[in-house]
Design a protein that fits this description.
By secondary structure, the chain is of the alpha/beta class. The protein folds into two domains: 20-156, NAD(P)-binding Rossmann-like Domain (Rossmann fold), CATH 3.40.50.720; 161-392, Rna Polymerase Sigma Factor, Chain: A. The protein is 42% helix and 16% strand. The chain has 14 helices and 13 strands. The protein has helices at residues 30-41, 57-67, 91-98, 115-123, 133-150, 159-168, 201-204, 214-222, 224-237, 275-282, 314-325, 329-345, 354-364, 373-395, and strands at residues 3-5, 8-10, 20-25, 46-53, 71-74, 87-89, 104-107, 128-130, 154-156, 176-183, 244-248, 254-260, 265-269. It has a seven-stranded parallel beta sheet with strand order 6-5-4-3-7-8-9, with helices on both faces. The chain has a four-stranded mixed beta sheet with strand order 11-10-12-13, covered by helices on one side. The protein has a two-stranded antiparallel sheet with strand order 1-2. Helix 4 (115-123) runs parallel beside helix 5 and helix 9 packs parallel to helix 11 (314-325). The chain is globular, with a radius of gyration of 22 Å. It binds magnesium ion. Magnesium ion binds next to helix 6. It catalyses: 2-C-methyl-D-erythritol 4-phosphate + NADP(+) = 1-deoxy-D-xylulose 5-phosphate + NADPH + H(+). Its cofactor is Mg(2+); Mn(2+). Residues 22-140 form the 1-deoxy-D-xylulose 5-phosphate reductoisomerase N-terminal domain.
């Protein structure tokens, strides 16, 4: 619609893009800091209106001051908050921030602690961009049912699931044959399994391609991370477990791919930089310029793919089986894994003790069909107690 005026064509101003109001849960962690980077780079596109952190009051205060955040909260109940009146503490305060009026809630609180805030965001009907796979692992059915009730959408931030989202955009669900998650294989892809008992925390924390928080870095070393991501993909994309595959791709350039029924395979490639999936999620699928440099495919390094060795990485099948069992089995898997990884990071068990401990907990988990939130929390607590008790018997034998 151009207006003619004395022979000059004037173009009406482009409708002003309203800034997207972002609530960021887990603002001081690895994903949270990168989300802050994205928001700071596009002040005309994003406004951080709410923020929460686990226990880092100083870090959260810095975020609040940097972005002029209206409301904030620290998860730790007795935290000495810095801004009474606008900063709260405890789970209820974090859930209030999660439910704030906004355009997108980015969930980057690690682990099971993100469940209640995620449900608060979903129940308030907020578009929820989640980086915390544990929430869908524990309570995928419940989160999806409650999102369906309020119309809340759940967007992936996890790089593999963001890749699948990108590959699936515009495609009919019926044309998808299989989703394939790529995995770097972590630092022990080629290490002799006979030496796994000697792996140190420092070695396990040295991820070859991604820089991440300690929990997910250990999960990447055991490949439990990929197992959890199978369950995450099942819920995010409504895909049956037999149609979700995993391949090892050490360079982490191909972030995942989709096989279609006609034989076509569509992949998403890029340098390993979490700011790309973070920006895409908080912008609701819109691409922003210059988030990361382009990958150079002519640099002489081949893109290689390998099948997963189930003996070296038993966590993948363990998680898949727990997912297929359903009920509270994935919640038990997740909780026992959190305990086992923490024990390893704390030098209380060896690297080779992590997955067997989780397997034992999953094997003993009760069978519950269509679990309620209470059932899930009960299974989570049960698995933590179970794993902790087993650890006590391992660490201090009678
Ligand atoms: Mg991932």
């Amino acid at each position: 619609m151009f207006a003619e005026n004395e022979g000059v064509t004037t173009i009406p101003p482009v409708a002003e893009v309203r800034r997207r109001r972002v609530v960021l849960l887990g603002a001081t962690g690895s994903i949270g800091r990168q989300c802050c980077d994205v928001i700071a780079r596009f002040p005309e596109r994003f406004e951080l209106v709410g923020a929460a952190a686990g226990s880092d009051v100083d870090g959260l205060t810095a975020v609040v001051e940097r972005f002029g955040v209206a409301r904030s909260a620290v998860l730790a109940p007795a935290a000495a908050i810095s801004r009474p009146g606008t900063m709260g503490s405890g789970q209820a305060a974090v859930c209030e921030v999660a439910a704030m009026e906004c355009d997108v809630v980015c969930v980057a609180i690690p682990g099971a602690a993100a469940l209640a805030p995620t449900l608060a965001a979903v129940d308030a009907g907020r578009t929820t961009a989640t980086a915390t796979k544990e929430v869908l692992v524990m309570a995928g059915e419940l989160v999806k049912a409650r999102a369906a009730a309020t119309g809340a959408r759940i967007l992936p931030v996890d790089s593999e699931h963001s890749a699948l989202w990108q590959c699936l955009r515009g495609e009919a669900a019926g044309s998808v044959r299989r989703l394939v998650l790529t995995a770097s294989g972590g630092p022990f892809r080629e290490r002799d399994p006979a030496t796994f008992a000697q792996i140190t925390v420092e070695e396990a924390l040295r991820h070859p391609t991604w820089t991440m928080g300690p929990k997910v870095t250990i999960d990447s070393a055991t490949m439990m991370n990929k197992g959890l991501e199978i369950i995450e993909a099942h819920f995010l994309f409504d895909m049956p477990y037999p149609r979700i595959g995993v391949v090892i791709h050490p360079r982490s350039i191909v972030h995942s791919f989709v096989e279609f029924i006609d034989g076509a395979v569509v992949a998403q490639l890029g340098v390993p930089d979490m700011r790309v999936p973070i920006a895409l999620a908080i912008a609701d699928g819109e691409r922003l310029p210059g988030i990361a440099p382009h990958v150079q495919l002519t640099d002489g390094h081949p893109l290689e793919f390998f099948a997963v060795d189930g003996d070296r990485f038993p966590a993948v099948d363990l998680a898949r089986t727990a997912g297929e069992r359903g009920g509270v089995a994935p919640a038990a898997l997740n909780a026992a894994n959190e305990v086992a990884v923490a024990a390893f990071l704390d030098h209380r068990i060896g690297y080779d003790g992590i997955v067997p401990l989780v397997a034992e907990a999953v094997g003993s988990a009760p069978a519950v069909v269509t679990p309620s939130l209470e059932d899930i929390l009960e299974a989570d607590a049960w698995a933590r107690d179970f794993a902790t008790a087993r650890l006590a018997s391992v660490v201090s034998p009678a």
